[in-house]
UniProtKB/TrEMBL annotation:
GO cellular component: cytosol; succinate-CoA ligase complex
Cofactor note: Binds 1 Mg(2+) ion per subunit.
SUBUNIT field: Heterotetramer of two alpha and two beta subunits.
InterPro entries the UniProt entry points to: ATP-grasp, ATP-grasp_succ-CoA_synth-type, ATP_grasp_subdomain_1, Succ-CoA_synthase_bsu_CS, SUCC_ACL_C, Succ_CoA_ligase-like_bsu, Succinyl-CoA_synth-like
Pathway: Carbohydrate metabolism; tricarboxylic acid cycle; succinate from succinyl-CoA (ligase route): step 1/1; One-carbon metabolism; formaldehyde assimilation via serine pathway
Organism field: Rhodovastum atsumiense
Catalyzed reactions: (S)-malate + ATP + CoA = (S)-malyl-CoA + ADP + phosphate; GTP + succinate + CoA = succinyl-CoA + GDP + phosphate; succinate + ATP + CoA = succinyl-CoA + ADP + phosphate
Ligand binding (substrate): 273, 330-332
Cited PROSITE patterns: ATP_GRASP (PS50975), SUCCINYL_COA_LIG_3 (PS01217)
Name this protein carries in UniProt: Succinate--CoA ligase [ADP-forming] subunit beta
Keyword annotations of the record: ATP-binding, Ligase, Magnesium, Metal-binding, Nucleotide-binding, Tricarboxylic acid cycle
Function: Succinyl-CoA synthetase functions in the citric acid cycle (TCA), coupling the hydrolysis of succinyl-CoA to the synthesis of either ATP or GTP and thus represents the only step of substrate-level phosphorylation in the TCA. The beta subunit provides nucleotide specificity of the enzyme and binds the substrate succinate, while the binding sites for coenzyme A and phosphate are found in the alpha subunit.
GO biological process: one example: succinyl-CoA metabolic process
Length: 398
């Protein structure tokens, strides 16, 4: 689960992480009022969407104008900036061409920036430890730094048995070239981030840029926090931070039905049981010359109702021109899948080619259910046969 920048900063502040003073606003009037609470004379107005690259982004109705992060020198300018953002669609490298509608802004105090650094915490699967990543290249995407300047990335893995210590912080501080009181400020900052990461079951905590001010303070200029969905049951207080407006409606509906669904840009809808099989299905669709429209794993214990819901979600995507159902029945029985497919196809008036490949538990019964349905379902013998048939059917229907 992702949250907005202003929410992330409010959480991090509770753990001793230094952030600038700021206030969220849903209207231009609220933005102006927020600015009047800040010392000035410089203010920063930031669009709040679940995507990075806001400063370099452009608004769909003003592609040649300013981005989603703007400086202002008075409360009146803050109001004008908010007016140009709220209700408009911001397009960044991470949103794709569709962009995201800005529904709120964050008005923050200006900052005397001396240096920009990068800092993040995540779980490194190779070491099975929380790892702190830092770099002198603040403001840049860490993927670009890794690709072009890998020597500028510093790492410190934290043993879960002992937790974070002053050693980790000093090692990174020296590597970043910090001096004097900057080192102690940085150590306090990193320790607070680690406590927040472990206490809140985060998937990632990223501060980019982390700035050193002219006075030697270390402050988060931006903040990104993402939580491990599997641990949210331990944190009911975090649920109120979830902004459903930032989520794909199809993904929200899938979550309500305990389905693993991710929308993609292709035209072949996929319904598969098992994440590995789903990945293989998407790969073979690409091999045969098409693109998958989604990742959808119905899981090993799906019911007829969940399968029907999955089918409806796939068909709710206007880009879907064909559907491939690929089921290997182990715990999941093929007849249950077949009943769900038939029920959903009848309920939504199926109007695109449907190819079904079944194998495993009760496969013959599943095939009989599909054959007796009277629906134009194309049967496939194996995965390659299924991919070839769905791609061919879509091309013929076009």
């Amino acid at each position: 689960m992702n949250i907005h920048e202003y929410q992330a900063k409010e959480l991090l502040k509770q753990y001793g992480v230094a952030v600038l003073e700021g206030h969220a606003a849903w209207t231009p009037e609220e933005a102006e009022a927020a600015a009047r609470k800040l010392p000035g004379p410089i203010y920063v107005v930031k669009s709040q969407i679940h995507a990075g690259g806001r400063g370099a982004g452009r608004f769909a109705d003003d592609p040649n104008g300013k981005g989603g992060v703007r400086l202002a020198k008075s409360p009146e300018e803050v109001r004008a900036a908010a007016e140009a953002m709220i209700g408009h669609v911001l397009v960044t490298k991470q949103t794709g061409p569709a962009g995201r509608k800005v529904r709120r802004v964050y008005v923050e105090a200006g900052c005397d920036i001396a240096r920009e650094l990068y800092l993040s915490l995540l779980v490194d699967r190779a070491t099975a430890r929380v790892t702190i990543i830092a770099s002198t290249e603040g403001g840049m995407e860490i993927e670009e730094v890794a690709a072009h300047h890998p020597e500028k990335i510093l790492r410190a893995a934290v043993d879960p048995a002992t937790g974070i210590s002053g050693f980790h912080c000093r090692k990174l501080a020296y590597g970043l070239g910090l001096q004097g009181k900057q080192i102690s400020a940085f150590s306090k900052f990193v320790t607070g981030m680690y406590k927040a990461f472990t206490s809140l079951d985060c998937a990632i905590v990223e501060v980019n840029p982390l700035v050193v001010t002219g006075a030697g303070e270390v402050v988060a200029l931006d903040a990104k926090v993402s939580f491990d969905d599997n641990a949210l049951f331990r944190h009911p207080e975090l649920e109120k931070l979830h902004d459903e407006a930032e989520e794909d409606p199809k993904e929200l509906e899938a979550a309500k039905n305990s389905l693993s669904y991710v929308a993609l840009d292709g035209t072949i809808g996929c319904m598969v049981n098992g994440a590995g099989l789903a990945m293989a299905t998407m790969d073979i669709i690409k091999l045969y010359g098409a693109e998958p429209a989604n990742f959808l794993d119905v899981g090993g214990g799906a019911t007829k109702e969940r399968v029907t819901a999955a089918f409806k979600i796939i068909l709710s995507d206007p880009n879907v021109e064909g559907i491939l159902v690929n089921i290997f029945g182990g715990i999941m029985r093929c007849d249950v899948i077949a009943e769900g497919v038939v029920a959903a196809a009848r309920e939504v008036s199926l109007n695109v080619p449907l190819v079904v490949r079944l194998e495993g538990t009760n496969v013959q019964l599943g095939k009989e259910i599909l054959a007796r349905s009277g629906l134009p379902i194309i049967a496939a013998d194996n995965l390659a046969d299924a991919a070839e048939k769905v791609v061919k059917a879509v091309k013929e229907a076009a």
